[in-house]
Amino acid sequence: MDKINSLLSPIGYSNNSCGYCHSKSGSFSYYASTTSLSTGFYQCLLNRGWRRSGSLLYKPDQLASCCPQYTIRLDSELFHASKDQRQALNRFNKHILGDFYIKDTARFYPRSREQAKKRNAEFDLVERVHEGEKGHLKTPPEPAYSLTVTLEPDEFTEEKYILFENYQRLVHHEPPHRISRPGFKNFLCNSPLPRSAEKFDGRERRLGSYHQCYRIDGTLVAIGVLDLLPQCVSAVYFIYHESVHQHGFGKVGALREIALAKEEGYKWWYAGFYIHSCIKMRYKGDYTPQYMLDPGSYNWDPLDDEMKKRLDSKKFVSLSLEQAASSAAAPLTPTPPANPTDDSTDTDMNDPDFDGQSDEEDGPVPDPEKPIFERSIPGILTKEQIFAEVDLDHIKIRVRDTEAETGDLVSWETGDMGSTRSIKGIIAELVAAVGAEAAGDMIVYFG
Q1: In the β-sheet with 51-53, what is the strand arrangement from edge to edge?
Q2: Most buried of 53, 107, 358, 432, CB within 10 angstroms?
């Protein structure tokens, strides 16, 4: 872990209306908020099924939710682009370069027979994503358009907001009342992950939150909002101007992010949550090879055709829990087959993960006084595991500007761990959700 303090303020377990199937009482998650996260700490959370939406952190309860959200990741070093993905990038490059440039450069800078043969036989992703960039072109002649792609701080500018407003309104079909500058700032700018640079295996790597900005002839046409972590490029959101919609920018952006993970040594590309029950989110599984985080064991299982068939037949899948239930001759509570929903005609875009919420009124939580470590939530530490794996008396806390440990609190010894209203119960729930490793590195913050 790096030296940045990871401050977590527990919010608790709640039920929200689902932004995917629009159920009013089907999306359950445990929530916390933060003002500061180290990149290593956040990677640890990702590998336990967490996700962030601005400064809000949440861990879905897949077993209880109507549309289970699964963490997935792709190995950039083994990535093999499909035919339609290759075509999307090649067509975009051809649009940027133009026919005259392509013909003239073939005459001015001819490839050798070996180079031409290799290019026809192989698809070098890193080479292809840079093929249309201004800084990688041989000139003269000049291309039809000037393309630049830069990693910039995730700071608010009016130029970025104008693009965001266009995307939300015309591409994502968001109602006007849900589009605002404060909303853009809160969710996609000034994240709790500070930017820095560290060396890994002798190679410097950028860390923190960035905007990958695409400009054509100086005009901002797309932004990939990225969290760069020690071992992954985590895609937060992708927006583009409706004028470039025809160029398959969802695919172009995804390929660019995978290439970044490969080129800069991050290795893994995290595409956000995979919601198999929502057809418009299934496109994320088209990039291979991908792996799905097992909700129970936190092992990574191939997101292959066999896994997708399992997800077709039942909405909740955990190979480890199924194996454990089979060994104990006590099967998991059966879940009904997924009922795919599709409220979008465009499956080729990086839809918002955020927390999958909608504007509908939230439903109540069953047994609201029951702590999460007694709810049989997959991957959550049980009460017995907390006692065995975590020193609950020495969790670091901060109250305003004063730092201490839980055991220093006057009421700690007499506190009821089983009560969601006591300080001991509130911290125990957070520990159960983040796991033993992260619990030792976090600071529980009470403003």
Answers
A1: 51-53, 56-60, 27-36, 6-16, 442-446, 396-399, 402-405
A2: 432
pLDDT for 60-114, tens place per residue?
999 999 999 999 999 999 999 999 999 999 999 999 999 999 999 999 999 999 9
Task: Give the pLDDT band (50/70/90) at residue 20.
Answer: confident
pLDDT in tens, 314-361: 999 999 999 998 887 655 554 555 555 554 434 434 444 444 444 555
**pTM here?**
0.93
Bridge partners of 151, per DSSP, are 212
- Position 442, amino acid: M
Q: Contact 229/50 with Cβ under 8 angstroms?
A: no
Residues in the chain: 447
Residue of 175, 236, 218 lying closest to 46 (CA atoms)? 236
Here the tokens at position 221 are 């046409």
Per the structure block, which two tokens stand in for 440? 């030792």
**Residue linked to tokens 């099967």:** 331
- Determine contact, residues 236/272, Cβ cutoff 8 Å: yes
